[in-house]
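*Target chain*
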Amino acid sequence: MVNIKELNPEASPRAAFGYRVRSAREGHGWTQDQFGERIGYSGRHVSAIETCHKPPTLRLVRSMDTVLGLAGTVESFERAWIELRNGSLLEGFPEYLSYEARAAEIRLFDVGVIPGPLQTPEYAQVLADSAAKRGVITPEQACERVESLAERQAALVRSVPPMVIVVLDESCIRRPIGGAAVMDAQLEHLVEFAERPNTVLQLAPFSIGERRPFTRLVNLLTMSDRAVMSYVESQTNGHLDREITSVLPLVRAYHLLQAEALSQAASVAMIDEVRKGTP
């Protein structure tokens, strides 16, 4: 008799997802092999999803929804997958990402840390692992966070790419993350980013002092219909704002920040100087 692993849906969000997959499969009287054949995967892969040994993918959950007749419903596995993937993200951020993936222009500012769209995989992994070590997220969520970032970056690669304007506080390039090799590769990536035809990269040097208008992450999006929205974060919360009366002051402040920041050429020169000091 084949041993069937007992599943505990209370163990974690992914365990609950796997438990639901097994329940749906068994509700139709299908073995793992039979279900796998219907959705285009092996029975072993189905088993790995049910027992949390493999993370579900968007392609897989959409295939399951089609076979199970759940596509487009509130009970769809795709909906559960989105909730699962966004479980380690701040409130408001998943909604922001849906707009960022369609924005015509993206303006970013951050302090201390390179923003997600410009991070290398190694830099992102160090940050996620550090959050897991502090107990802020689980190791599983750390992996999901890095995977989600890769999807975020991929969404910006389009036939007509968005204009991406980034102003970084000088602390972003001077704060060592992950050791010399990781940091050097990250700084090299910033220089490559600045060379793209649809990007602008500037540094807000320490010397501007109190004239820096922002003290934390601020993202501004301009959509194809010229609608403008903002996204700001605190340590524990994110807030997406589409009200023009409260977004416009941030847009004005961003313009003032760009006026105070170094030119792109001077910014790249500073990054190169910092790289020279990296062993």
